[in-house]
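Regression test case RT-17, inverse folding.

Input:
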């Protein structure tokens, strides 16, 4: 008979009904013993699971307490040298330092900057026409030199002359001359046969002319600029400034250097260099006379 399908009560009733059947009693007792062992084992593992789930939150809380409480308490009870230095007011020394340059802390000799070209100009009034001499007074070759010329009549609000000239490269102490820097005579024409427009500097009559030169090169540290003026021209009447005083190669026309583009004159102002070139009737207008700040004038005189 299969006793595994019977309940404990049914097995006990069979035992009571067959007290003299030894075989039946042995089989039933073995079956009851197996069931008791299985039940005890199941109860034991169920108790262990309950204990495990109950202990897990306690373990997590203990870990958090160790991080937040135990470490500060440990540092308070057993301060190391770093903590002692902080309490004494000394700055904390990092445990790891970046490798330092062996030259740090040792004065190194100053490295001279590479030489640069320094360009200058000189305006000369000659019999064949005004010429602009461009020279390199620096210690390096000046490359891709460019010269811009801008001019206008004072108070007329507009540029009436603008030219740009390319100059060959200049070694130190070399120069180059731009002939007829203020344009060609009116009766000449360019290579295409087109006649030049009426040149501001070639007119029989004009108001005082003001303008500036800007000289740059590809390897220059900064551009340089000079302002200039030309006196009023009237038919059959000489201007207020004698050209004979500033004519020839030995007497260049006066120029005044300024910081370009911050200090450049406006295209309606009159550059009164040399003094008197603008005339009293022009100078009486507000903001028309152009001049450098007082701190810069002394350096250009």
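Golden output:
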């Amino acid at each position: 008979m299969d006793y595994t399908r019977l309940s404990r009560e049914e097995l006990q009733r069979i035992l009571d009904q067959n007290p003299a059947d030894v075989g039946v009693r042995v089989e039933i007792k073995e079956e009851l013993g197996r069931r008791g062992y299985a039940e005890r084992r199941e109860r034991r593992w169920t108790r262990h699971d309950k204990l495990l789930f109950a202990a897990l939150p306690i373990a997590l809380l203990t870990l958090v307490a160790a991080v937040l409480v135990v470490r500060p308490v440990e540092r308070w009870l057993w301060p190391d040298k770093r903590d002692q230095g902080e309490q004494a007011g000394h700055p904390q020394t990092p445990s790891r330092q970046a490798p330092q340059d062996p030259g740090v802390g040792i004065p190194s000799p100053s490295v001279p900057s590479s030489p640069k070209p320094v360009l200058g100009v000189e305006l000369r009034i000659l019999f064949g026409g005004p010429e602009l001499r461009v020279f390199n007074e620096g210690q390096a070759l000046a490359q891709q030199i460019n010269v811009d010329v801008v001019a206008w009549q004072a108070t007329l609000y507009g540029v009436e002359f603008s030219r740009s000239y390319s100059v060959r490269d200049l070694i130190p102490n070399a120069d180059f001359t731009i002939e007829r820097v203020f344009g060609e005579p009116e009766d000449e024409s360019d290579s295409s046969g087109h006649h030049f427009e009426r040149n501001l500097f070639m007119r029989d009559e004009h108001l005082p002319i003001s303008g500036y030169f800007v000289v740059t090169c590809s390897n220059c540290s900064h551009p340089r600029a000079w302002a200039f003026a030309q006196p009023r021209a009237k038919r059959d009447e000489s201007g207020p400034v004698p050209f004979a005083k500033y004519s020839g190669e030995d007497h260049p026309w006066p120029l005044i250097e300024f910081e370009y583009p911050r200090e450049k004159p406006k295209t309606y102002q009159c550059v009164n260099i040399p003094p008197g070139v603008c005339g009293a009737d022009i100078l009486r207008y507000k903001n028309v006379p152009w001049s450098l700040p007082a701190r810069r004038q002394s350096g250009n005189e």
